[in-house]
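Moderator note: this is an archived Q&A kept for reference. The question asked for a predicted structure of one protein chain; the sequence and the answer are reproduced below.
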Amino acid sequence: MKDKSVYLAVDLGAGSGRVIAGEFDGVSICLNEIVRFKNTPIELSTGWHWDINCLYENILDGISSAADRYGDSIISIGIDTWGVDYGLLGKDGKLLDQPFQYRDKRTEGMMKFAFEKVDKRKIYNRTGIQFMFFNTIYQLLAEVASGKLINQAEDLLFTPDLIGYLLTGNKCQERTIASTTQLYNPLIKNWDYNLIDELGLPKRLFKDIHDSGTKLGGLKHSIASKNRLSNVKVITIAGHDTACAVAAVPSKTSAPVFLSSGTWSLMGIELQEPVINTSSFEDGFTNEVGIDGTTRFLKNISGLWLIQECRREWSERGIDIAYNDMARIACSAVEFSSLIDPDDERFISAGNMVKKIQDFCRETKQVVPKEKSEIIRCIYESLALRYAEVWKKLIQITGQSPTELHIVGGGCQDRLLNQFTANAIGANVIVGPVEATGMGNILCQLISDKKINGVSEARQISLNSHTVKVFKAKEKQKWTMAKRKFTKLTRTYTQ
């Protein structure tokens, strides 16, 4: 290990977490998964929460295992997670309750309540964020409405910042994760305190914002001494996992178009400035902060959540289908027989996903899929056609002329969906890396450590570290007809 520096990535997703070690030799990064663990929400009397204590214990186990393996070669640790969720701390610095899970129903009615206080378009003009029921803005309005904990809270820490606090004892609010809240103003690059005040939210919870690459501090003495890591520092990297994933997109273009594929699909383009106008508002695009001050102009799309829920439902009936078998099963079904709008609100919540898909098809007078192959193919084709709509809108709104789409994240392992996506958008799809968030996490640490100079060099290292696959568009006529059917279906259904 003498010729390599090791950086640890704590990468938490909505379904699982991992601690990953990145060995950097000056040219490329070799990723080694130290530990992987489930991230399962828990239902308490107050609703659905994240089991932050369990997550923290798993992270500590991962750090200990990494210390045993790499010792004093470890330079730093970075933390990335999903967006919008947070924990509230009291004056004594202790967590007041387990953080709420973003799908919890407490936000029902909060969006309407917000618009009664501040006009919807005004909120968008000042934040540039897509309206999603689980955004932090609506979670905090629910906190105020309940009045249980918010009055006792002295600090609000978003999930990656909360993990950093548990590891170091130091608090911060990082910029990329702050930009997911719908309370951050990308034009003034700070909290929109006027909006916060108009909504009746406590200003004291919104502190100075830290940029990616800031040193948060050393590990707590109890952690450092146990693992002989007294010289290891925790770095406030790009805390939002999508920001990390986009940093690892192996592209040489100045404005790469990306699809971070997982439970959610996040499709967008990296720009130097936010895009906030009538078109972006009407089409529901969001402006989130990336590393080096960039803007991730993107659209949230319901991704492999649909597949995951169907698989879970079948598993509960004693039928286990491996993800690797999904494509083979789907290929036996008739193409374009049934389509759904993946972003229909009925598909957001867990449970009865197969029936929800069948109900949508029945209501839209399509063939109702019954076999598992038909359900799976319906989801794959519908997702690809939705991606094609967003791809087209990205071009129209930004004026860019992309020739390729980069798919990163765990979902990029799905070869059939990759091919369907290339067919639907009519352009090359470049796939990889799978562990984009972990790779991006470590790249952010390398930038902070001044081992590399910014995002362009980071992406070259990502390219050096992985073999990408290219999927070329096929069957143009079939997919052109399918896109027409999909557009007619979704427009008719939403009218």
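Archived answer notes: The radius of gyration is 22 Å.
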